[in-house]
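Dear colleagues,

As part of the handover before I leave the project, I'm documenting each prediction I ran so the next person doesn't have to rerun anything. This entry is a single chain, and its sequence is reproduced below.
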Amino acid sequence: MYNNKKKIERIGKDFLFFCKFMFIVMWELLIYAIYRDFSSFVDRLSHRLASINILYVKLFQAFALNNSLIDESLNNKLLKFTDNAPWTEEDINYEELEVIKRDYNLILRGGCVKPINSGMISLVFKGQNQFNGLPMIIKMKRKNIEEKLADAIQNLETFLIFLSFIPLFKKYQISEVITKNIDIIRHQTNFIEEVDNMERMYNNCKNLKYVKIPLPVREVTEQYPNIIVMDFIEGIKINEINEEDMEPFAKQVIKFGFVTTIVQGFTHGDLHAGNILFIKDEKGGKYKHKIGVIDFGIMYDLNLEFKGYMFDIISQLFETDPRETAIKTLNSGIVEPHGILQKIPKEHYENIVQFATEMVSENINVSKKANQIQIYKFMSKLKEYLSNSELANIGIRPSDNLVKSQLVLAMAHGVTFTLCKDEYAALSDKVINELFHTELLLDK
């Protein structure tokens, strides 16, 4: 009896949410049909979707980027909701915040309880140690966020069932992309894990003079699992960077990505514009341009074999024949089981290699752009091809790394291309040579 009642309540909630969602979308589409202002349409729709379920901004963004419907400017508008999500006073646990302030001698900036950032999971406050004057960050989970997130995910999963019947959504398998990343989103509520990630990244990067990682006060989170207190990093946002500083900052972002992925094998899984601070230090000498990286709720560990493949591919990306690069990429662990490509019918193998080769050739040799949207589409095309019944019977399937990488690429898109514009390939090549001295490797 109790279970039946819960099911009925769940169905009612999902139906009500579906009605709200459809009303918002249809109303905004009507306004767009009248005024034909796509930028305003994206802005209004994102605000209204975020107000009922912040996860829908990620859904809309993944779909829009996948279909080249938005440019970098609109992408950044969507990304801002990950740092400025709607919040109310009911989201703040005032009692716990007062305890932290008292026990750790902190005062809030200006003495007011107003977050400087508001994400899906947390609210971020700027504080100050009242004894030494050092600025600190207090990151606090929204009140009852676990229950709210579970409810939001249930809404999302139910709505994805409806989307699966729409051909365009089905074609690009957006439902699968979002579903696969739900577990990643859940991990962001585990602050002990985030403190572990932060400390590990801090130690990994402590000798990198162009990167700053905040150091957390572990004892705070161990005693109060809903709060992280950490160092404050002074920096500016991507939209505040001067034109002459864009390329130097872009190099540091690319360098950070290469080092943490290929060398260290422990990399940031949500490296969007809101999670990078840009620091110009006139007294920094060689390292005048630095980046501060924050928010370590989503991280990826790469195994040694995958790291080896990626180093080989990246270090020779602009010199190796596109077909060879394509084959190496396909064998890098983006499909499972490992080595299965050598066992499938030759016709299917050649088809997969051919469109992978065309993708590499287009991005590197023709357009000179390592366009992440194109890579994202390549991943979708590969996944679509692998769903072929004959291949499915063989057992070949896209790896979890491939599926999860789609959302990561979409979220990182705004940073690299806002900074680099059309110079990404050339700048990446330069950074790779500086890091790994690939001219020497190739000469040998």
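Confidence is low (pLDDT under 50) at residues 62-68, 367-373, 438-444. The chain has 20 helices and twelve strands.

All the best with the project,
I.
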